[in-house]
Write a structure and sequence with these properties.
Blueprint (H helix, E strand, L loop, with lengths): L7 H9 L14 E5 L3 E6 L6 E3 L5 E8 L2 E12 L7 E14 L6 E8 L14 E10 L9 E5 L1 H10 L3 E8 L11 E3 L3 E7 L3 E8 L3 E2 L8 E2 L2 E9 L8 E8 L7 E4 L7 E5 L8 E9 L11 E5 L9 E4 L5 E5 L8 E6 L2 E6 L2 E5 L4 E7 L9 E4 L9 E3 L3 E2 L4 E6 L5 E7 L4 E5 L6 E5 L5 E11 L8 E8 L4 E3 L5 E2 L4 E6 L5 E8 L5 E4 L3 E6 L5 E11 L8 E8 L3 E5 L6 E2 L4 E6 L5 E8 L6 E4 L6 E5 L5 E11 L8 E8 L4 E4 L6 E2 L6 E6 L6 E8 L5 E4 L7 E5 L5 E11 L8 E7 L4 E5 L9 E6 L5 E10 L5 E8 L5 E6 L5 E11 L4 E11 L2
Parallel strand pairs: 15-21, 30-36, 38-44, 46-52, 54-60
Antiparallel strand pairs: 1-12, 2-3, 2-5, 4-5, 4-11, 5-10, 6-9, 6-11, 6-12, 7-8, 7-10, 13-14, 13-16, 16-19, 17-18, 17-20, 20-21, 22-23, 23-26, 24-25, 24-27, 27-28, 29-31, 31-34, 32-33, 32-35, 35-36, 37-39, 39-42, 40-41, 40-43, 43-44, 45-47, 47-50, 48-49, 48-51, 51-52, 53-55, 55-58, 56-57, ...
Length: about 850
């Protein structure tokens, strides 16, 4: 089937642009780390020129008096982020607990800052730059002193550091400026831990069609498929986790609203069967895949394409046996749609490629179907042969070449054979047997192709033995030439296949239009590039040079070379054209004497003209108003007004807009106030993008460099209100220009944020669980802690929120289990937030 030009890109953009990638709450497949810092420095005002590198013990903060000398201390911690590059981050908490306080009646406000790099030269006198304040806690006035817990959400800071390509991130912990000098406010804290919850989203590759195997079709090369076609892909997960689910989507590119989803099979190489029988022949379909693990869903893959062909080969194949030895020779009988065969025999089945093949079945009967490139099967052809009698002579046929004498060995199974009678289909002949086997029958085949030799031995009494029938093929000494590339163009290489079955070939000699011969090494099939210098018929001839230096007759192939002009886009941002930007195509003549061109887009009735330059070329500018396919039709015109053949050239127009994935779906509410999530930016022209400019509602515009190692660039965002919000994002290209603004509308729910530290508990060890946010003015939180194994509520209650709307409980897992912390917040008037659930695994 041919592949009609259709608006592939626009149909794909609509079909795939409907789905947001949802980020799930953390599950057991999460990666946790790095935990302890890779390095730390304590600085001291009493020793301003040096710092204590990786000093053991707890973290000193604020002022102390020792030996009559006042020491004011700050601490800097650095954490390695390399293991989390390429992961979807769900949470990141910097935390520690007080171990000692000078005076619990003295307020001790503690601040956490993200800083510039920390190094060996870090000291009180040369501290790293304080970049942003990320956390604050008023210690010393609470009920728990010492022993207060500090947990700071640093997800956005970690996300941004990884997006910038930073290998590490550093934080400063210090007393607030107003309290830092007060000795009574000094305290010790545990070494600060950075706990990151991350997960590698599944990565899809090796998309293609199975049975028969074809790759992922592109707009330039679209394979055909029909009937029940198998869509397949491979899933990689850096966390060595098999996908929980795989979805395939398929839709006509002209009707993305007809998008269907099919659930895939399980495992790393899932597939799904799509029934294409309901689509008319010639329909262009796009299809894509998506995989989900325990925590995250991959983006939809880039689309693959196929053209529907539900029409099987019309000509039944021919089948011949080779002496009933279980081997059969099948042939496509000249049907050019036939690219292979499927067979079944005695409970076995198989598939072979080509339009002529040998099948070894081990049986006397076989059923064969011809198969086309779309996988359609023709009607069944059944063939059976009758084994020869036990006294039938043996026949051994070597490789035979038409017009060249060869010898066939005949071996008697009868004790007193004196001769053989044989028939090649041209009448019965006789040859005397030699006393010692085998008897050599010299024969010169008149033509190439299929033959059947029938032989019987003749005894001294004139009796005939059983009949032996042997089928074989005779080689054509003239090589065959073939091109599957379709119409040829001037100056554009066309692959021509030269094929020969000669056993003694040394090289091919070929020439174009009677020009100089060129030589390539001999093989059963070689492909040579043929470049036509003019329009019209172009003849390619080839012959075989044998090992002995003689040559075979030459085979020929005539290519029909179009007189249509050659069209080549001038790339813009690395592609043929971009919606909303001026694009250029160059028209090059196929014939001399061209003075101009007539052209139109998308079959429009209004044709435009452009004069040719001195070299016969011309440039055409156009500005596509939408992504998808534009079809440029052009003819060249010579001096007397004669027009060339028309050229239809599909120009793929890329979409400059940003596609968005989000923790908040485009429909329905998700998460809550103060609960962090992520946006992902992707789409066409990613390789030409330097960074993304984005903001939410009336917030400040932020810039995020493109993640060069990932298909999606992720940014962290924490909502400061519930209800509807709008993300606005555009990309900056390498040339400094900006894309149109994409708006993504979403709705923030009211689920509170629930964070546990550590993220994995231990039986009998306390785990601090913090509740916050969800909606404004929350004054309390109701909670339950339920064990998964028995469903028993191990802890429950109500805890009041502090002035910042946060609260904390301490939970001690009684035994090894997975525990669910279920939390609902309430305002003073009794309005409830959404319900949030956090799983805490607690195992030794």
């Amino acid at each position: 089937m041919g592949s009609p030009v259709r608006s592939l890109r626009s149909g794909v953009a609509v079909a795939l642009g409907l789905a947001a990638v949802l980020v799930a709450a953390p599950a057991r497949a999460m990666n946790y780390g790095p935990g302890t810092p890779s390095g730390w420095v304590f600085t001291d005002s009493a020793d301003p020129g040096s710092g204590q590198m990786d000093a053991p013990g707890d973290t000193p903060l604020g002022s102390f008096v020792a030996g009559g000398v006042k020491h004011t201390r700050r601490a800097y911690f650095t954490y390695d982020l390399s293991e989390f590059r390429g992961q979807v981050l769900h949470r990141a908490t910097l935390s520690a607990t007080e171990t000692s306080v000078t005076d619990c009646d003295t307020a001790g406000p503690v601040e956490v800052w993200r800083t510039g790099p920390v190094g060996a030269d870090t000291s009180w006198a040369h501290p790293p730059a304080e970049v942003e304040l990320v956390g604050h806690a008023d210690f010393g006035t609470g009920a728990l002193c010492p022993g207060a817990y500090l947990g700071v959400d640093v997800l956005s800071q970690v996300d941004s550091a990884i997006a910038r390509g930073d290998k590490t991130i550093s934080f400063e912990v210090r007393m607030a400026a107003g309290a830092e000098a007060r000795a009574l406010a000094g305290r010790l804290m545990q070494p600060f831990r950075l706990t990151i919850w991350g997960n590698h989203a599944p990565v899809l590759s090796r998309l293609g069609l199975r049975a028969p195997a074809r790759g992922c079709g592109t707009p330039e090369q679209i394979p055909s498929a029909g009937g029940r076609t198998t869509l397949a892909l491979h899933v990689d997960d850096a966390d060595r986790e098999q996908p929980r689910s795989v979805q395939f989507a398929i839709w006509p590119v002209e009707h993305p609203d007809q998008r269907k989803q099919i659930r895939g099979s399980y495992g790393d190489d899932p597939d799904a069967v799509a029934d294409l029988s309901g689509y008319p022949d010639g329909t262009v379909l796009a299809w894509a895949g998506q995989a989900r693990d325990a925590d995250d869903t991959s983006p939809w893959s880039s689309p693959c394409f196929l053209t529907v062909d539900n029409t099987p080969p019309r000509t039944a194949p021919t089948v011949r046996a080779t002496d009933c030895t279980g081997a059969f020779v099948v042939d496509g009988a000249g049907d050019r749609d036939t690219v292979g065969f499927v067979w079944s025999a005695a409970g076995r089945s198989g598939r072979v490629r080509g339009d002529h093949a040998r099948i070894d079945t081990g049986a006397d009967e076989v059923t064969v179907d011809a198969v086309d490139s779309a996988g359609n099967r023709g009607r069944d052809v059944a063939y059976a042969c009758t084994p020869p009698a036990g006294d039938a002579p043996g026949v051994s046929v070597p490789s035979l070449v038409a017009g060249v004498a060869g010898t066939i060995a005949l071996t008697s199974r009868a004790a007193d054979a004196v001769a053989y009678e044989y028939d090649f289909g041209d009448g019965r002949h006789r040859i005397d047997a030699v006393p010692t086997d085998p008897t050599q029958l010299t024969w010169t085949p008149r033509h190439s192709g299929a033959y059947t030799l029938a032989v019987s031995a003749v005894t001294a009494t004139g009796a005939l033995s059983g009949l032996r029938e042997q089928s074989f093929d005779v080689i054509d000494p003239t090589p065959s030439l073939r091109s599957d590339a379709g119409p040829a163009d001037v100056g554009v290489p066309v692959p021509v296949k030269i094929t020969s079955g000669l056993p003694d070939g040394a090289a091919y000699r070929y020439r174009i239009d009677g020009g100089a011969e060129r030589e390539v090494r001999f093989a059963a099939q070689v492909t040579v590039p043929v470049v036509a210098a003019h329009a019209g018929p172009v003849t390619v001839s080839a012959r075989v040079r044998r090992v002995d230096g003689t040559f075979t007759p030459a085979g020929t192939l005539t290519l029909a070379v179009s007189s249509a002009p050659v069209i080549k886009p001038v790339p813009d941002l690395g592609v043929a054209a971009v919606a909303g930007r001026i694009g250029t195509v160059t028209l090059t003549p196929a014939e001399p004497g061209v003075v101009g061109y007539r052209y139109s887009f998308d079959g429009g009735a209004q044709r435009q003209t452009v004069p040719a330059g001195p070299d016969g070329r011309a440039d055409v500018e156009f500005t596509p108003d939408r992504p998808g396919w534009r079809v440029l039709t052009a003819v060249s015109v010579d001096g007397d007004g004669t027009a060339s053949d028309p050229r239809d050239y599909p120009i793929v127009v890329a979409d400059p807009a940003v596609q968005v994935t989000a923790s908040w779906p485009a429909s329905g509410k998700a998460l809550g106030l103060g609960v962090p999530g992520t946006f992902g930016f992707l789409g066409d022209l990613t390789g030409e993008t330097t960074d993304y400019l984005w903001h939410v509602d009336d917030g400040p515009v932020r810039t995020m460099p493109r993640d060069t190692g990932e298909a999606i660039t992720s940014v962290a965002f924490t909502p400061d209100h519930t209800g509807p919000s709008t993300l606005a994002v555009q990309r900056r290209f390498r040339d400094g220009s900006l894309s149109p603004v994409t708006e993504y509308h979403f709705d923030v729910g009211t689920q509170p944020r629930v964070v546990a530290d550590p993220g994995r508990g231990l039986p009998g060890k306390a785990t601090a669980v913090t509740f916050a946010g969800g909606m404004p003015d929350v004054v309390s939180f109701d909670y339950q802690v339920v064990g998964d194994s028995d469903g028993v509520v191990d802890s429950a209650g109500t805890v009041l929120a502090d002035g910042d709307g946060a609260a904390q409980i301490t939970f001690v897992p009684p035994s090894a289990d997975n525990y669910r912390v279920i939390v609902t917040g309430h305002t003073a008037d009794g309005t409830a937030t959404g319900t949030a659930t956090l799983k805490i695994p607690a195992y030794l």
